[in-house]
Amino acid sequence: MTKGKLFIFSAASGTGKTSLAKALVESTPDIAFSVSHTTRAPRPGEQHGVHYYFVTREEFERMVANGEFVEHATVFGNSYGTSKQVIEDQIKSGKSVILDIDWQGARAIKKWRPEAVSIFILPPSRAALRERLTNRKQDSQEIIDRRMREAVAEMSHYSEFDLLVVFAQAPRRVYTREQLMEMVWGWDYVGVDRVVDVHISNLRKALDDSSAEQ
User: Fold this and answer.
1) What DSSP line would sit under 92-142, residue for residue?
2) How much is the pTM?
3) How far apart are CA 154 and CA 205, in angstroms?
4) 68-125 pLDDT per residue, tens
C-alpha cells in the first residue's frame, strides 16, 4: 500500500483555511483531516473525534508529559495538540493528511517530518479579514480586535512556507508573488516557492507538484 502525504495548512484566524481545507477534502477522496486535541469547549455543531478530541486540561497535560504530541500550543487561553499516532496511522493507511495548525505548529511538524508540504493562506485584505471574523458571530468585539492585532504578526511568517494561497471568496484572480505581497500586506516578496489562487483544481495540482519535489 502506498503511504499518504502530509500537508500543513496555516493562516491567521478567520482567513478561511478551514473552509478551504474542507472543500479540498470533500473533493478529493484520498485526503483527510488530522483531528487535533484541544482543551477548549466545543462550538455549536462540533463533535468529539470529528472536529477535535475535546479533553480536560489534566488529560492534555498528561499527553504532553508522555510526549504524545508532535506539537502543542496555547492560543487565546486554550491548548491544542497534534497527536503523532493519529497522523502516523492515517498516513500508513494510504490517506494523505491535512493539518490545520498555526505557524508555530507548522515549524514543529516540518522538523518532525521535513517532507511535509506547508501552505500558508492569506485573505485579500485586512478589511476582508475583519469582516469574516465579524460575520462568523462566534467572538466578542474585544476578541475580534485582539485577533486583528495578532494577524499581521502571524502572517509575517509566510516566508517559512512552501506555498501561498489567496482565499478571496470572489471571482478567480491570479497574482504574481510580488503583486500579492505588495497589494495585500505591503511586504517585499521573499522565499516562497509559488503563489496560487483559491481554485480547488489549481490547489490540488500545486500540492501534487510540491509533494513530488520533496
Assistant:
1) HTT-EEEEE--HHHHHHHHHH-TTPEEEEEE-S-HHHHHHHHHHHT-S-HH
2) 0.71
3) 26
4) 999 998 888 999 999 999 899 999 999 999 998 888 889 989 999 999 988 888 776 7
CA 49 – CA 46 distance, rounded (Å) = 9
Give per-residue pLDDT as tens, 149-191: 888 788 878 778 887 777 665 434 445 555 555 544 444 433 4
Kindly indicate the confidence band of residue 138, based on its pLDDT and cuts at 50, 70 and 90: confident
Longest dimension (CA), the chain: 50
| Beta carbons of 175 and 189 less than 8 angstroms apart | no
Could you tell me if 198 and 167 are in contact, meaning their C-beta atoms sit under 8 angstroms apart?
yes
Which of 36, 77, 37, 78 is closest to 59 using CA atoms? 37
Q: Which of 136, 145, 37 is nearest to 81 (CA)?
A: 37
Q: In what order do the strands lie in the sheet with 37-38?
A: 53-54, 37-38, 78-83, 69-75
Strand order in the sheet with 163-166: 31-33, 96-100, 6-10, 117-122, 163-166, 194-197
Q: How many residues does the chain have?
A: 214
SS3 content of the chain, % helix, strand, coil (to 5): 45, 20, 35
